Protein: PX-domain-containing protein
Organism: Collybia nuda
Amino acid sequence: MATLPRASKLTPGSSNSIFQRPQSEFDAGINASAAWTEHLETGSASGSGSLSDEEPDDGEQESLRPARALYEFEGKAEFRELSVQAGDDLEIVKEDLSDGWSLVKKVGGEIGLLPRTYYTFTLEFTPAPDLDVTGLFNRKKEASTTESITPRGSPKGPPATLPIIPQNTGEWRNAFPSFRRSLLGGKSLNRFSSFVTSGAEEFLLKGTPADITLSSDLTPGVRHEKDTSDSSIDEEESNRLSRLGLGEADRHFVDTGPAWKEKIPPFRVLVHSPSKRTSVLSGAFTVYSVTSLFHPTPIVEAEEDEEDESGYQGAAPFSPTRITVHRRFSHFVILHTALTRRLPGIALPPLPEKQYAGRFSEDFVEARRGDLERYISRIVRHPVARYAEVVTFFLGCENDTEWKRLVPQHLAMPAAGPAFYARVFHPAFNVDAEDAEDVVDRFATHTKAVGKGVQGLRNIFGRVREARTEMSKAERLLAYSLLSLITSKPLASAPMTGITEEDEQYNTKGKGLLNEDGAWCWREGCRDCLKLTKAMQKTSETLQNVADLYDDHARRTQLVIHESLKGMAHPSSLYEGVVTTHKSTLSRYHEATREGRADEDMAARCETVLNTTMAEMETYHIQKVEDFNTLTKEHLDGEIAFYEQVLSRLKSTRRNFEAARFDELGNSPRQPSMYERELEAPRLSTKPLPQPCPHVFDSAPMRPVSVAIQEGVGLFLGPSSRGSVFGKFW
């Protein structure tokens, strides 16, 4: 038996309000200050919508919608927010701003930003029968002789004998992503908690959104059950329902645990083969090949202990199905924007930060490729996100024309908000309040400890890589010194070995240093010294190869491990919204189950949200085990392969001193080593060791493009307070 929140009573005709409301012309920003500043710019540019304290003209007054504050709100002056008391009369200048804000004006003239859910429109009140509040209306009228208490546009006749109740006005969110939000790597500066911004609070207070009631006409039997296999819906209707968020991909199931139920098996995604392209409209950009690998599960018809004719036990293995598409970074921004809107209750990985300076350098392109591959891999690893429609569209749309046609539709889909939780199916009574409270405290403590530990591990791992480069220099210097010894040629860095200038007087050309065969001997025709000299020269060349292995290991193999640590370094920041939503829901659950004030419907909705948050915690647990298991094995495999290469070269060189091969070295004169010419200028200084690009949550200095953006946005956000804790490592 699945349990889901019961549908709240809705005003007739409100289910289509999402399509009736005109789209706001306001371009959403990233927080309240951004919303304020952008509206100022829009108003000044168009000549309308001025935010000055002067009274607007009559035409402007008619465009303002009367409203009344429902709750007390203490605004912050630095964010241009408006402080109101419950019951204050307001006028709405702009309803649909970014992140749930509205631009509001008090009847007295003060103007500012107010959360959209903190007021209701008084013009759309409707009477409720069987109640009389005439006395209340008269008392309010006696309190003031002016007409300021009457909202503009409201009837001014005799007081009605029936009270007024708010009408459900629906919800509208800007369909297109914020440009500034994408530039800041998807980070939001909204000071509201994720409990509010994800729609969980609205879901608990108001119940099921209006558009969810449409699903009752499609599902036979008990509401919220899965469609039967014989139910048929034409393609056009299916697309319409999908746009409403009522498709099968928008229904999520929780098993006992609680844990997300997987609808489709995991698959692998590779981001590879970056190439630079140029467009007349957008200029130069980098395109990455994104390949999805689907491994079909073979159906084993024979018994496990039986072998087929080919000798293979069970069914023959299948090669994976490959789908390759070409995507640029802006396409990943579209994917991330759509996902965060449709899956507000899921802890999605942050998108790598955008960069302009040096974005076509080979090192940066490779680093960006790795970041994007890790990002999309974490998306498809999530049991819910992997079957989202925008993900399948992103990974499967191979036609550019079809991509351009469907992208606006995905971006125009309304944010799921509370509807996300209304479409979560879970077993009944599978959450214990005491256990849920203990689990979230343990989870929050554990993720903070993991993040701190991984940050320290990243620090140490960076020092290990630096030590490998120092070992490379030491091996190279040892090789040069050995070659300098057997050739009697001075090494430019000889003072590093303790040789003084007075001791270098023997390094003059003369007899007795090398014989005619190039052997390290004063005797002509000395085969013993010839064999020794050639064997030692090969040893010097091997040490050069070992130095190259150390350097390459630190720059490539260990860099991959260093990059992978980024995805595990900030679990606390990544799941902060899940923890906040879980704790806030527990508080509401205790209120809904309190004696004398029990609310069965709200308790059921709280149980749904708790199932969602606990399923996210279980997802982290599974992925943490997989991540550290894979990372440790990759590190060990890399170390083993590295030392095997070093050991193989050292063993090969050691065989030169064995009797058979040692005697062969005396059959021909010594040839100069390729490294002799480097003795005058040894390669002891190398390029700086490449470091991983900073993670979005790292307390590292911003990159140049972010600094430029910060200077522009800083006009209304103020100076940045980001410190540099790991700057010397990243």
User: Anything to note?
Assistant: Residues 433-487 form the longest helix (55 residues). The mean pLDDT is 74.
